[in-house]
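Handout, section 4.2: multi-component inputs.
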Amino acid sequence: MSVTEANNLKNKVKSLAGKTQTIKSDFTQYKHIDFLANDIESKGKLTFKEPGQVKWEYTQPYTYSIIFKNQTVYINDDGNKSNLDVGGNKLFERLNNLIASSIRGDMFNANEFDMKFFKDDDNDLVHFLPKDPQLSEFIHAFHIWFSKKGNVQEVKMIEPSGDYTQIVFSNRTTNQPLSDADFSQ
Amino acid sequence: MRILASSILFILFTACASYPKKQQFTQVTASTQNIINPYFSDTSKDYVYKANIDAFGNSFGGLFIVKKIGEKSHRMVFTTEMGTTIFDFSIKDQRFTVHKILKDMDRKILLNILQQDLTALVTEKLETSQRYQKGHQTLYESQLLNKKHYFYFRQNQLKSISRTKNGKEKVAHIFSDVEGNLAKSIRITHNNLPLQLTFKAL
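Output:
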């Protein structure tokens, strides 16, 4: 991808992210571990609302939800509820911002990531490589696929070992009104 | 006085009794045999469990994944539901290798516990020289990482593994909801620590 094309993509994604107040989407997650015969597949629903409220709700093959809201993580593990106050935890704060950013694809921060831009069939693909060693202990790279409109189609989080988690979004709706109940535990 | 002395002797006797004796098992003629734990024995199978760990008042979940990768070799990974790897170990012929563990969990005491528990969980073939019987129930005694373990079979199905010290059970691995060679439910309970691991097959 040329520099101009990369800049166009950045502007398109940033502009779309700025206009996106809420997202609802289904997702399919593939956990790839090199020594396994098959990826571990799970499915669920993602709900996002500005500023930075995120709910990942897994419905298959297990029931589990994790909500990032008001500097607290709310977990519901098949009926067992727990909270984790992470106020003041800088790493968590960054991780939460990162999750919220990656859903919209708006991660074009040259201070935080080295970036590489590619064309991949009908989509645009960007590799984000964290510069911070604290983050790169967990994640070697984020690969994000964008639609022509600038929506995130797919996120792949690659661990230093090469194993990865791939999340493919479908049935995405944006800017539909969401209530507090959508982020209840 | 005689009754008191007898009582003390009885208490001492039962307190010092072996684990099988306390469980009312009788020793059968000793001969060297092999015990088979079949629950992680298929190299073609990915063993994937939803896991819960209750440790020292904290509870957290994730996925526990085991793969038999060689004759006496297993790889096992614990990840969060969202896919982040918490630990990645291999056990080959009872030798334990840490490929990855989160920095916050990289403590020798924790690694020793996980090494003991997971080695007992996946070791497939063990030699035993002591066998105890109670009806259709059998206890086989064996050494794993220099600690005494009892493998409890009922009607030829492995039901539990108990690590003992001085005749007392310290750690129990309990297998239930067994289908063929798959234990769909596994619980590892520590009797001397507030630590319990629960695995449910996905």
